[in-house]
Amino acid sequence: MPTQLKTRSTTTTALGYAACALAGTLWGTGFYFGKIALTEMNVGHMVFYRFLFATLGMVPLMRRPGLNRKEWGLLLLASFLGIPVQFLLQFWGLSLTTVSHAALMVGTMPVILALGATIFTHERLDWKGWLALAGSTSGVALITLSGTHSHTANGPSLTGDMLVVLSLAIALGWILLNRHLMQGHSALVVTAYGILSGFLMLAVWVCVVDGPPPIHGISARVWFALIASGLLCTAATTFLWNWGIHKVPASRAGVFLNIEPALGSILGVELLGDRLGPAAWLGGALIITAAIILTTTGHTDTEAILE
Question: Which entry of 131, 139, 142, 190 is 20 to 30 Å from 8 by CA?
Answer without folding.
Answer: 190
